[in-house]
Amino acid sequence: MENQNILEVKLKYIVRSFLEQVKGENIEIISHFDTDGITSASIMIQTLKKLDQQFSLKIIKSLTKETIDSLDKNKVIVFLDLASNSLGYIKEANLKKVYIIDHHEVEEEIPNNVEIINPQLWDKEKISSSGLTYLFAKEIDEKNKDLAKLAILGMIGDQLEKDIDKLNNGILEDGNIQRKRGLLIFPSTRPLNRVLEYSSDPFIPGVTGDIKGVLELLREAGLNPEGGKYKSLIELNDDEMERLVTSIILRNPKKKNKEIIGDLFLIKLYGKLEDARELSAKINACSRDGKPEVAIGLCLENQEAKKKAEAIHVKYKQTLISGIKFAQDSEKIVGEGFVIINAKKNIKDTMIGTVTSILANSPAYEKGTIIISMAEDDENQMIKISGRNVGRSGRNVRELLSNIMIHFNGEVGGHEFAAGCSIPLEKEEEFISKIKENFELEVVKIASN
Prior knowledge:
Blueprint: H1 2-22, E1 27-32, H2 35-50, E2 55-60, H3 65-69, E3 76-80, H4 87-93, E4 97-101, E5 114-117, H5 129-140, H6 148-157, H7 171-174, E6 178-183, H8 192-197, H9 211-220, H10 238-251, H11 257-260, E7 261-269, E8 272-275, H12 276-288, H13 292-299, H14 303-329, E9 333-335, E10 338-344, H15 352-360, E11 370-377, E12 382-389, H16 397-405, E13 413-414, E14 418-424, H17 428-448
Parallel strand pairs: 1-2, 1-3, 3-4, 4-5, 10-11
Antiparallel strand pairs: 6-7, 7-8, 9-10, 11-12, 12-14, 13-14
Helix pairs in contact: 1-5, 2-5, 2-6, 2-13, 5-6, 6-12, 12-13, 12-14, 13-14, 14-15
């Protein structure tokens, strides 16, 4: 209760400050391009529209010093799902007034012109930026409860659904979300044969990306088409669900029942119930395809955006499966407790993080292994680096990358078990050399202890 009170008190104070500060002003909103950032921006857009408040919006992949320096010093700036690691740059930029709603780690002193809502500062409660933005919107006006479903989408996009029960803020209830127990493969509302073919989390060896393997699994589980069509997950009875889970576990024995069984969240969007993970995946696909405006339109229930998002998502799923296959089959640098995958141009830089997360959830690697993946970003002449810790246990990936990036004057974003950064294209060999050196030193340290 005490932690919740800290959040409530902070929200009340910052909302009051915000409403006083923005009267008659033009606000600039800057949000991250992933599902959590897009849903945070969509909540903020609708909140400000109801206030008849002028604003502009920019969706970005990462926040750089150059971006911060280019901001209008006379505008009120709102950062969503980023900026907690850029407080030094914000201070140097001498901006008029800045509001940050974020859930990433805060490592620098908070400047006087910055108001920040971030649980990392007091109780480290697990809540997405979209959840925080929703609570901010609800504090402005109780009628903003209709935006709760977008907060749930953002939480699921940031893989925080297992922590939803711990939030004690009623977001699920506010959003009128239907919750069912079932197999964590999405979408739960579409025919099983199509769903299994594109299942990336969990990744099912011999099934994901292989329609013959899909049909073989379904036959083995005794799940046959009825009237030429397979059932969807939410249409299966308990016995059918059990047979399907058994067949999947046999192909992925490292996965336990509790890892692939969980809560399915059904959200009403466009007048019908949709699987929240599928919606989250569509938002993510649009952003990573360079179309964040389509992702925003999807959240705002624009029909044209919905059609575009569906087409982008189909193409994205196909590209993702190709990326996974490349990452599985390509030559890797393998050492004690680590794997380096240098995809160069073979996997899109916007997709390398997703591919790495899928590999970290596959049975291919031991728990605690750190996977470092690299992909070229031709447009900016950079290499995007993604680090994941298999089984979310062991060494802190963010800390590891931060130690390496000291040599490249770069910043690291993310969390303890999932982090990323970027380096200039010409620093590729130097980065690989430094990261191998760091891992080898770690092994020596462990051995000597």
